[in-house]
Amino acid sequence: MRRRLAAYRLTAAGGALLFILAAALIVLLLGPSHDEGPAFIVIAIVLAMLVVNGMPTGRLGQLPFESSLSERRERFHPGDRDAAGAVDPPEEEEAWRQERERYADRERHPD
Which of 44-48, 62-66, 76-80: highest mean pLDDT? Predict the structure, then answer.
């Protein structure tokens, strides 16, 4: 169960939605009768937002702006990638060598 719960992360917007949902539930259950209608509408909107956001793409295909969890992890956690196998092309190595020489020359001859 812990592993399953650890797979979910709550953003600030998600926390705000859960707070609004809890407040609307409290108003619906304990509040005055004239506030039940707006509280029910807020609950319906928040639940609809949570359901639509949590829907898998499935057979409908993936929208162009959406990416899978593994793709987002690759993009936002570059430390997980295998950097040992990455080799700079010769042109890039030459550019870095020239930059190091310019830096060393500036250090030797300050203006």
Answer: 44-48
